[in-house]
Amino acid sequence: MEHRDINCSIWDTPATRILPLSEKDKFPILRSPRAGGDYKITAEGYNEVLCLDATDKAKLTTILIDLRRAGDHAPWVTPDLVEKAKSADPLPVYVRAERLLRYLVGKSDVVGDSFTLHGIENDPEAYAWTESFLPKELIYFVNYLNDMRWISGLNSGLFAITVDGYERVAEQTTKKDLSQCFVAMWFDDSMNSMYEEGLKKAIEECGYKPLRIDKKPDVNKIDDEIIAEIRRSRFVVADFTHDKEKGVRGAVFYEAGFAYGLGLEVIYSCRKGLAGELNFDTRQYHHILWETPEDLRIQLRDRIRARVGDYRTEPVDLASG
Question: 316: how many CB neighbours lie within 10 A of its CB?
């Protein structure tokens, strides 16, 4: 396998192009520290990347890192992925700080390894993992990790990850399933048709597997299972349909909020006629308002394809029609 020095197609920073082993592989792998690792890019994807500003490039980098963490070792940059980056919200500040901690743990070969602040300021992967642009952002995150006692300051400006830091990363590290969609909804018999003929069919038409926690076999402590499965999922569909007399379903709000805090894509829906009763916290987000299971199926299928894309490991070959 031949390696050639080249610039990253996203950041125009030093990278390595790994040429394909055979003619069957049309696209080389680009290995870019500033993009957080390996990726492939289509010609159409490259043209879209050229129009991105630094903020959208950072969000695209975050998506690539998360795809690698989920098992896609060299994710494709396509127009769909670029569009997803443009529509994504920036990571919350505390999430960016915790991603730095996760990166430092992964970078350490031995427990107790130390690192320098100066080294982090010049580490392109640290910028990639934290959606950062300036050295002062990384300094801020290091100070935050120190304040949280996840790292400890040593002599001469050196830092080391603490036991609490390793524990924090362990709590948040869960193997992701790129094909899984977590479903948050009201588990009531009146919702069976809505789920089977609407929500479930839409998710499966896009190639994903819906997971309802009440249908998962061998569930232990349900709160722990919910958190673990949300962490594993590619995205979440949260339906806020509820009984008017019993009120809104608090668990759905919790699950949607938890997923949003992790930076997952959350698609909101609700039966038409109940939207006016939604809480302010979620009413600000665009909801799919559905009347029938078939109506929900069509709208949700189109929303998944627009916001997440169909599940596939290879890009669409536009030349083949």
Answer: 15
pTM for the predicted model, two decimal places: 0.59
Q: Which two tokens stand for residue 270?
A: 């609700």
| CB-based contacts of 227, cutoff 8 Å, min separation 6 | 258
Distance CA(268)–CA(248), nearest Å, equals 14
What are the two backbone dihedrals, phi and then psi, of residue 303, each rounded to the nearest 5 degrees?
A: -70, -40
**How far is the C-alpha of 303 from the C-alpha of 267, rounded, in Å?**
8
- Which residue has 């979440």 as its token pair? 236
Rounded distance, CA 79 to CA 128, Å?
A: 20
The CA distance from 49 to 11, in Å, is 9
250-278 b/e (C-beta count within 10 Å ≥ 16 → b): ebbbebbebbbebbbbbbbbbbeebeeeb
- Residue ranges, the chain, pLDDT below 50: 1, 219-220, 315-321
Nearest-5° Cα angle at 304, 302 to 305? 65
CA 317 – CA 24 distance, rounded (Å) = 13
Query: Whose CA is closest to 168, among 221, 99, 66, 256?
Result: 99
Q: What is the pLDDT of residues 199-219, one digit of tens each?
A: 999 999 999 999 998 877 654
Distance CA 64, CA 74 (A): 8
Q: How big is the CA angle at 32 (ends 31 and 36), to the nearest 5 degrees? A: 110
Q: Identify whether the C-beta of residue 291 lies closer than 8 Å to the C-beta of residue 310.
A: no
For every residue of 54-100, DSSP letters joined together read: HHHHHHHHHHHHHHHHTT-SS-EE-HHHHHHHHHSPPPPHHHHHHHH
Contacts of 308 (CB under 8 A, 6+ apart): 84, 206, 234, 235, 265, 267
DSSP 315: -
Q: What are the φ/ψ torsions at residue 41 (nearest 5 degrees)?
A: -140, 135
Cα distance between residue 137 and residue 149, in whole Å: 19
- Neighbouring residues of 299: CB distance < 8 A, sequence distance ≥ 6: 202, 269, 288, 290
